[in-house]
Amino acid sequence: MKFYSTNNPKQKVSLAEAVIKGLAPDQGLYMPERIPILSKQFIEKLPEFSFKEIGYKVISAIFSEDLTKAQIHDLVDHTLTFDAPLIKVEQDVFSLELFHGPTLAFKDFGARFCSKLMSLLLKDSEKKVRVLVATSGDTGSAVANGFLGVDGVEVIILFPKGKVSELQEKQFTTLGQNITALEVDGVFDDCQAMVKQAFLDKELNEKLLLTSANSINIARWIPQSLYYFYAYSRLPQNGKKVAFAVPSGNFGNIAAGILAQRMGLPIDHFVAATNVNKVVPDFLRGAKFKTMSSIPTISNSMDVGNPSNFPRLLALYGNSEKTLKESVAGYFYRDAETVEVMQEVKKMGYTLDPHGAVGYKGLKDFMLENPGYQGVFLETAHPGKFRETVEKALDLKLTLPDRLATFMKGEKRVGILNNDFGDFRKYLMKLE
Fold this sequence. Notes:
Layout: E1 3-5, E2 8-13, H1 15-21, E3 30-32, H2 40-44, H3 51-63, H4 69-79, E4 86-90, E5 93-97, H5 107-121, E6 129-134, H6 138-147, E7 153-160, H7 166-173, E8 179-184, H8 188-200, H9 202-207, E9 209-212, H10 218-221, H11 226-233, E10 241-247, H12 252-262, E11 269-274, H13 279-284, H14 310-316, H15 321-327, E12 328-332, H16 335-346, H17 354-369, E13 373-379, H18 387-394, H19 402-408, E14 415-417, H20 421-429
Parallel strand pairs: 5-13, 6-7, 6-9, 7-8, 8-14, 10-11, 10-13, 11-12
Antiparallel strand pairs: 1-2, 1-3, 4-5
């Protein structure tokens, strides 16, 4: 399988180059040259399969030309070591809990897959790989913990000062070993821009082997499609249409769901739900796509004004803006609305984190406008990762899972960067 750049479909590379480079030289995102269609028989039998059995089939469809059967099984076994249960919240509304991994966030799936695949592809390389990551919260912790202790790889994480929750910070600033955290005096979009500039710097790339583990990397993005298949397989087979609502920031997660749909999963509609960083909801409702400066909110992992995976959304719909707008509904919510939803759902006996609350609200509003659906919203992080916000909103005291409590005891160790690519470049040039 070859992978093409969204900026130039004629430019195709191997799996190894797509994964190790992360971003195409023309700043495009890599996409598989073709999307395999899974058989109707497999789709119909999904409820009979385990999560791993589904994973073997889906990953084989995409990667069988490049990896052996044993490697694919090794990849899936390494990735799917925890469950993603589908929980009924109310009639026809289900939460897909994606926070049962090591850092209690959905990005654990992609990070574990990415680290394992990179180790397979780089096993004969003599050059150390530097993984550059920009994070607004969960990406940093998932990638840091996914790559912790991996030989021949150093992870360098850029994060915006004061814009990430204390617990999220602790999950990637206390690890040491091959993980370095750099605190940037700016916002997430600044961090993301600096990482992209580094990949485009010819001198830097001649000296260092740089790659990305953000969702721009296909090795982070593609495995996220697995839990859409799994969630669908656990839904009631009642003849109702199916909608998936995804709390969205960079839009890699919803793009993975659309990939699953393109592979034959019968999802009828997607809902992109954001906070007031509403570039994509505005676009879906008829406005021109226009980036914005990100605005801080209580759902900080979605504080993105320039969503990096937007080109993938278009590519998945044949670069047809019309088809994209017909297939995905967009909603955005202010912090006050998010808190109100958290309070309402708590009365039903379910505790949402701020991001899941945005997804739930988007799903409910879509179903109100479109009767006849059952729906799944993605609960992307454990409420304990946003303990201060959740406790304040719900007037309760959360008990942190042991894994989170352990992180809180660690000592924060960071480097300081100005919001300037020149500073970051100097830092990288000093590396050996």
